[in-house]
Write a structure and sequence with these properties.
The structure holds two protein chains of two kinds.
Chain A (H helix, E strand, L loop, with lengths): L4 E6 L5 E6 L7 H7 L18 E4 L10 H7 L9 E3 L12 E5 L4
Parallel strand pairs in A: 1-5
Antiparallel strand pairs in A: 1-2, 3-4, 3-5
Chain B lengths: L1 E2 L2 E4 L3 H12 L4 E5 L6 H5 L5 E2 L8 E2 H12 L5 E4 L3 E6 L5 E5 L4 E4 L1 E4 L5 E4 L7 H4 L18 E5 L3 H11 L4 E6 L8 H12 L4 E4 L1 E7 L6 E6 L2 E6 L2 E4 L3 E4 L10 E2 L2 E3 L13 E3 L4 E2 L7 H19 L10 H4 L1 E2 L5 E2 L11
Parallel strand pairs in B: 1-9, 2-3, 2-10, 3-6, 10-22, 12-13, 12-18, 13-14, 21-23
Antiparallel strand pairs in B: 4-5, 7-8, 8-9, 11-19, 15-16, 16-17, 20-21, 24-25
Helix pairs in contact in B: 1-3, 1-7, 5-6
The chains are: A alpha+beta, B alpha/beta.
Amino acid sequence: MSEDIRIFLTDRRGVRHQLLAPTDMQMNLMEVCKAHELPVEGTCGGMALCASCQCYVNSKHLLSEPSDDEEAMLAEAFHVKENSRLSCQILMTPELEGLEVTLAPND
Amino acid sequence: MIKTDILIIGAGPTGLFAVFEAGLLKLKCHLIDSLPMAGGQCAEIYPKKPIYDIPSHPEIMAGDLIKNLEQQIAPFQPGYTLGESAVSIEKTEDEQFIVTTDQGTQHQAPVVAIAGGLGTFEPRKPPLENLKKFENQGVNYIVKDPEFFRDKKVVIAGGGDSALDWTIFLENVAESVTLVHRRNEFRGALDSVEKVQVLKNEKRIKLITQAEVTALKGSEKLEQLTVTRQGTTIDLECDHFIPLFGLTPKLGPIAKWGLKIEKNAIVVDNSLDYQTNIPGIYAIGDVNTYPGKLKLILCGFHEATLMCQSAFKRIYPDKRNVLKYTTVSGINGFDGSQKQAAKSTIKSIE
């Protein structure tokens, strides 16, 4: 069993949470948020088709490049910034220990 | 007034399969859906995505799953009220429910099954300051009648199929069409992207990419909008702004029907029949919640099946009934069609 990593997430009310995320369960950040009962909808289930899980990445972690699907969805999402990502496309890996993110506003 | 046995709100996979299970019990169904077609999320959000956890389908496209379900339930001749949202429900003295849509269509049934998934699909609205003020005063989220835009100056925003399709269509109708998108890339059908390219080359439309609409102006009606492109702003005269950023589901009016709701889902009795706190109203599929709930199509199918058995008992309290197997009884469609296992031939050896 690999060790859990810590994700630091600021929710839409500005409250900071420390989330423990397993790295051996093929979980993405949207799913980790749901598992912690945070108000992330994930309407499309994680297919990069709804942007309801948009977040801003605040730390300097090296994330995988967004796919074409994610880029296209972000181009139609709202409140998008330079550091916007869809959390459903961020897979939990050991390298992401200490990742800092903020949830983007709901539509 | 449309009358039926089970009124199903939501024509996604769970709602559609309920028609089949009801049909086996000779109960008629009518479906209401806010989308103009059946299929719910499978049709609206991910028709081209493969699903791998439908029992006995190693892989099936969401769109094909819906097609198959429509074919499977066709013998039971379900009625459809599509493109309308169920907004209100009332109970009559003789234990019937009357459900009325946003367009005033009335439906009557002794049983209502809410299979509304994540809710009614509503247009995603860009966060613009004056947006609400100009709704129906120049801002339109859907194109109901293209003639409405004849000889008008139209600005469309978005990068998907609907933005491309309406740009192509309205170019023939409107005085001018401007398409605004945040990227150079469009994720629509290749054919539509190419058509828009031709329209742009021939200067029949104006295409502004890497840009977005950032402000709306006008006294009563929309008169002008601002497009921001890489830090610079362009003001465009405009009669209509059509933002096409897809749809998002909202539980909507159902939330005010007096049903017990937890975390945006309807609480049901999963130990028995998926009935809500209001007898005669059931909730099946993604719209419901109970301990251990999983939002899976296959669970929706199971819930629909149990709901129909309970609905039968509610509608015919004095009729005795046992579960029938289609392998034994076949399918007797309301259209007169019959499907039955072929009788085996027995031949003697002399």
